[in-house]
Amino acid sequence: MKHASFIAVEGPIGAGKTTLTTMLAAELGLPVIKEIVEENPFLGKFYQNMDDWSFQLEMFFLCNRYKQLEDTVLEYIDKGKAVISDYHIYKNLIFGERTLKGTKRDKYREIYHVLTDDLPKPNIILYIRADLDTLLTRIAKRGRSFEAEMDNAYLQQLIEDYDSAMASLAVTEPNTVILAIDGNQFDFVENPQHFAEIASQVKELLT
């Protein structure tokens, strides 16, 4: 590798981000950064009542991801080592803009920028895009109890929000390569050839 790369795997809930990240980390011999999800104590309450628990939920995620990426700078990026993560810190704005309202959203935006503006940004994003039926199938398969409460309309809106966010990042972060993966057609878990194609494309970007 000519330089240290920071790879982020992104996509809406159920896209397979962590699975693909883990597989690629093993294939490429890279350290992996995984976001904390189930450890968030507000998740179950959030899916039952989004308005009451959205700020607590989003702040927990933001602070934990900030800490993870701050450590990543010290441990990997600043030492010239490539690393792969199953999220981009920008996802906090994707979710925050959707779940927060009024002054809480304004406060969250301010805190987000204070914490993240000087963090390293991925120079490679693997964006797994899938339609609602595909995401629902994968969510049901992994069987997280708190996700059973999720509104399908919320998930559909996230799909659209992610499309908009990736289009925005393509403009605001022009040095970042965004590799789109069709999650409806590519089953990188069950089909080794599909995974091999994705891994091959990533290897090309790293050379």
What does this structure look like?
It is a single chain. By secondary structure, the chain is of the alpha/beta class. The protein has a domain at 6-36 and 65-89 and 119-206: 3-Layer(aba) Sandwich (Rossmann fold). The chain has 8 helices and 5 strands. Helix 3 (50-75) packs antiparallel against helix 4, helix 4 runs antiparallel to helix 5 (102-116) and helix 4 (91-99) packs across helix 7. The radius of gyration is 17 Å and the shape is globular. The model has no long low-confidence stretch (mean pLDDT 91). It comes from Paenibacillus donghaensis.
Short description:
The protein has helices spanning 17-28, 43-48, 50-75, 91-99, 102-116, 132-142, 152-172, 192-206, and strands at 6-10, 32-33, 83-85, 124-129, 177-182. It is α/β, with parallel strands linked by helices and 207 residues long.
